[in-house]
Amino acid sequence: MKNTSTAPNAMSTVDAHTKIEDMLAMLIGTFILSFALNLLQFSGIMTGGTAGLSLLIHYITGLKFGTVFFLINIPFYYFAYKKMGIALVIKTFIAVLLLSAFAEIMPQFIKIQSINPFYATIVANLIMGISFLILFRHRSSLGGVNLLALYLQSKFNISAGKFQMGVDLSILIASAFFVEWHLLAISILGAIVLNFVIAMNHKSSRYIA
Fold first, then answer.
1. Which region, left, alpha or beta, applies to residue 180 given φ > 0 means left and ψ of -120 to 50 means alpha?
2. DSSP code, position 15
3. Is the pTM of this model over 0.90?
4. How far apart are CA 75 and CA 64, in angstroms?
5. CA 53/CA 40 separation, integer angstroms
6. 72-105 residue pLDDT tens
7. By the number of CB atoms within 10 A of the CB, which of 30, 151, 185, 198 ranks highest?
8. Residue 114: C-alpha distances to residues 8, 38, 42, 83, 90 (Å)
């Protein structure tokens, strides 16, 4: 007997996120990301991208990470607008503002007396990976170098991946003059963990919303 029943196709329609869901995602993503960045700051660990550059400036000058991160991202809003329009600019601005604020507020509630740098790196980069996934899946970002990389690829046909890798490598090389070698080695391990989490989970064929 032929079965004429039909099962619903999960991919036939897209259940788009609401604006409230997008805002909650930005709040949650930036909040837990601020905790991860505070772990890195306390341990003296580096990371790549705009956050890594902000950490480096923080280590060198003593300026607050949140303030530096917010200011560095200002020029990148232009690239976000050119590449993906005003909606992404607004979301990026809100996400950067939230992360900058949370990064400054978090130390008022958590006082870390001691933590192993290796453990801090693993935990922080796992949390960062989860945070980025939350933001990516809600069409949001934290601006910075990745937006510039996308712009250069579109405008001048420069590989976004190679440009991003070059910037991250430059930041790590520059940090070698200000960060102890064993902490730099741990930082590289953390970058591998972070990219593995994102590469394994951030695939458009597995998630549409």
1. beta
2. -
3. no
4. 19
5. 13
6. 888 877 777 766 678 778 888 888 889 889 988 9
7. 30
8. 52, 13, 9, 43, 38
